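Sorry, explain these tokens?

***
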Amino acid sequence: MARVIEIRTYQLRPGSGAAFHRTVVEESLPMLERWGVEVVAFGPSLDDDDRYYLVRAYPSLEDRQRSQDAFYGSDEWRDGPREAIVSKIERDISVVLPADSMSQGPDLAI
């Protein structure tokens, strides 16, 4: 399989959005960069500060799995921002799709 995009959304605990975003920007993103993870987009939802999204790209589905196993299994993650991140998440959903499908789809008149 070719390049893939992962779209992850989070429902955060009420009132935790600002602290979650701060931890992402100050700790998680620099760490992801050090681990070679391509973050395409991230941030709070426009309509709810306690909803958040993270979009990452990987060379393949297999690379995504290897990368996440290594990253989330690392001492740097477990001893670093893990607790500050996980403690603020009520639930999350991930969708993984081929990168080329991002340009496909119906033309919508909005």
User: Anything to note?
Assistant: The mean pLDDT is 92.
